What we know:
Layout: E1 2-6, H1 8-11, H2 16-25, E2 30-33, H3 50-63, E3 66-72, H4 81-101, E4 105-109, H5 117-138, E5 141-145, H6 155-164, E6 170-175, H7 179-182, H8 189-196, E7 200-205, H9 247-256, E8 276-279, H10 288-304
Helix pairs in contact: 2-3, 4-5, 8-9
Amino acid sequence: MKIAFDVDVLAKQMPIRDYVRKVADWGYKYIEQSPHPRINPFYKHPLFSKECEEEYRKALKETGVEISSFIVVYRWSGPTEEQRRHAVANWKRMIQIAVDMGVPVINTEFSGDPNQQEICNGMFFRSMEELLPIIEREGLRVEIQSHPYDFCELNDETCDIVKSFRSKNLGYVYSASHGFFYDQGKGDVRHMLKYAGDELTHVLLADTWNQTKDCRYILNPPWLNARGRADVTIHQHTAMGEGEVDFDGIFETLREMDFVNKQLKPGAPKAGGDNIICVSYFGFPEKMDQQAPEALERIQSELLGR
Length: 306
């Protein structure tokens, strides 16, 4: 299992070389590279100039840190055909970048429109018809998560979509901070993780409040609240223990599922190497020097027995 840190909170504050060193100083060996304006910007075509690549490679070599995975967010589920075609082109370039950089995993979202679910579902499957053969040919693992304000927000439904392809090159991402959307406020982490089963290859750790509970979050005008079911979504990515996510249940279930060793066994179900668990804290860079090492210590204690 690879333990990674999502550098989104750092990339907004410092250059690539500095955040690679920062992650190394905290004790992490792996970086999850979320959308970055110089590399893989949200919705737009990947960039990654020669100078940017050299800077990144140099920092990785100097620190011994590796990139576990890229996160990309493209509108491959439309809802328009033009958006979908652009997104597929973005995907093809990002796959090339991942292969060139020796990064075996890309994780992503459906990135559709919850108000056009039928259209977006069809667009997603159309994109996969074109992309899955490329993904399989390159030996990558692409992992999909449902996300708040997407055409599919539910854990079980997303797992069923991923499972329907029956591909060793596809996995499922469980994001703890999205979990109350995944089962409409129940927060039953044990069921959700077990339902994912062999498709579970990636877990994102961050806390949040249950958006279905009255006044957990308050929006104005008041009718936007609607117990979290209006045409707006809200969640957080705070440190474990700062919200209502059942992290004891998450770690206990991951131990029961042998998440740490899943891909190391003979006949491992998925391409792309080890499973990944990633600290996905956003919004409070001023706390990271304390919270990032604490998160690493808890993961090692809960899952590695250290």
